What we know:
Blueprint: H1 3-16, H2 24-34, H3 39-51, H4 59-73, H5 89-95, H6 101-115
Helix pairs in contact: 1-3, 3-4
Amino acid sequence: xxxxxxxxxxxxxxxxxxxxxxxxKIISSLYEDYKGxxxxxxxxxxxxxxxxxxxxxxxxxxxxxxxEQNDLIYTDNKQLPRPIYKxxxxxxxxxxxxxxxxxxxxxxxxxxxxxx
Length: 116
């Protein structure tokens, strides 16, 4: 996640928890903790904490939830199988008779779901 995305998430949190008192030093330190995560994971974690009615933003809880969300986003189960040829995505789609990437993702998600 880049710093701009991180700051957007903090801005969102600051509106919901106006008692946050982050200065530049704290923000820089927090960014070092979160820069390896996805912006979506951080946003999801903040949303979960807010939806559960937290009066204060618990930073250790936020970190744990962000890590869990990030792991969910990037699990091996959600990855497409390796292409038959190393010619890239277009060739993979063509070789497997997919018209779009979305169609390939849906097919592979359904395939994974039927095996569980």
